[in-house]
Amino acid sequence: MPAQIIDGKKIAKQITEGLKKKVAALQGDARPGLAVVRVGDDPASVSYVNSKEKKCKELGYYSVKKELPEETSEKELLKLVAELNADPRIHGILVQLPLPKHISEQKVLAAISPEKDVDGFHPMNLGRLLRHEKTIESCTPKGIIKLIKSTGIEIAGKNAVVVGRSNIVGKPVAALLLNENATVTICHSKTTDLTSHLKQADIVVVAVGQASLITGDMLKKGAVVIDVGTNRLEDGKLHGDVDFESAEKVAGFLTPVPGGVGPMTIACLMENTYEAFAS
Ligand code: NDP
């Protein structure tokens, strides 16, 4: 039997529809406020920032979009972050990555007030995540856990393999899976036998950035497979890190690209912003 496809678009819509209703029911003028900051003209960043602004409008959030030129200095960007930290209308601040090379991402992310860090990248929030304390969870990892839970499969006790160890996806998703009591293995570019790990995995999360790296023959029958990868190939289309055709024949559940993790990331950003507003 082919894998059941996990419909990220549908689950994301359920989340955003719920938020829209909550905002519509608010009394007075107060509403969740999100500031999105972009530096430079990276086309992917332009499109991400625009879609976040559009989603804010759709949900009735207060939204601020700051678009700064490539040559903006680190000092200027830090000043803007400080202003947004102090602005009571803003509950969430997102600085779109990557930043130009002359600006330290580490410094800028650490300058965002942890309470407004709706991307969950601040060292304080990542530390709380590792300690299994209340925190703002990074949007993509948070969305991935929701997708896994949507299958009805119990995470506790399962073998989970995360392929990729970035600070924005791999490591936080591994921490979340551990907090859900999975037995977690993290694989990366120096892993010697990826297939031997994947063959034991009931849950697989792939966040590498290499089209079709994972094929069906590497997976355990019935596994829940979450494909985070977004690779734009010569055909102009978006491809995941998992070879959909072969994986579909082996996996129990599988996310498509596009339409899987992507819509969940933005829905979780909106959820984090609402929660920052409400807390
Ligand atoms: P990074 O480039 O930061 O990390 C990639 C990871 O993959 C690294 O840990 C690297 O290992 C590992 N890796 C590289 N080659 C292999 C290999 N052959 N086998 C096993 N592991 C390997 O990427 P990100 O985490 O930022 O993003 C990963 C993908 O997810 C990208 O396609 C990105 O576009 C997508 N993405 C999608 C989002 C969404 O909302 N849909 C959000 C964020 C990311 P090492 O550490 O050893 O170098």
Folded structure, characterized:
With 279 residues, the protein is of the alpha/beta class. 40% of the residues lie in helices and 16% in strands. Bound molecules: NADPH dihydro-nicotinamide-adenine-dinucleotide phosphate. NADPH dihydro-nicotinamide-adenine-dinucleotide phosphate is lined by residues 140, 163-166, 168-170, 187-191, 194, 207-210, 213, 228-231, 261-262, 265.
Helical content (DSSP H or I, runs of 4+) = 40-55%
User: What count of helical segments does DSSP give?
Assistant: 10
Residue stretches low in confidence (pLDDT < 50, at least 5 long) are none
Distance between the termini: 45 Å
CATH architecture of the largest domain: 3-Layer(aba) Sandwich
Give the strand content.
15-25%
Shape: globular
CATH superfamily of the largest domain: NAD(P)-binding Rossmann-like Domain
How much is the average pLDDT? Answer: 97
Helix and strand run: EHEHEHEHHHEHEHEEEEHEH
Q: For the report, how would you describe the main beta sheet? A: 6 strands, parallel
Which CATH class of the largest domain applies here?
A: Alpha Beta
- The CATH topology of the largest domain corresponds to Rossmann fold
